[in-house]
Specification:
- By secondary structure, the protein is mainly β.
- It folds into two domains: 80 residues; 41 residues, no CATH class.
- It has one helix and 13 strands.
- Strands 3, 4, 5, 6, 7, 8 and 9 form a seven-stranded parallel β-sheet that branches. Strands 1-2 form a two-stranded antiparallel sheet.
- A hairpin with a 2-residue loop joins strand 12 and strand 13.
- The two termini are 36 Å apart.
Length: 140
Amino acid sequence: MEINKNKEIQHCGTKPKKIAFGIAPLGIVSIGIVPMGVISIGVVPMGVFSFGAVAMGIVNLSVVGMGIISAGVTTMGIWEYSPIFQKNHHNHSKQISNSNNEKIMSDLFNTKGEAEKAASKYGCIGAHEMGNKWMPCKMH
């Protein structure tokens, strides 16, 4: 909820402004605390392009980012970049090692059965989908 300069209360059902500032502002470009819009800049921005501390959107540049493309310290997305965690960055195409220091060449499988069979090498059970492939372990 936001109160505009005419002292009217605005909420999520309100038509967004072109540029909005404040607490939970709704606009094409939004700046503030929990801004929502196409371009959102602030503490917890939520928009198509989000820039801030904890960003949630399609493209994020933040300390903590969750979206399709995320860049930041801690990120979750399909394509992600973290300058701090580059060495141990999760990559589905690189060779990895399990806790027994055995080399495992690929953690992507064509069938659920293959991934479930490989799960014991990871110290887990089950399998989960990753795009059109399968990975060992119930959870990613």
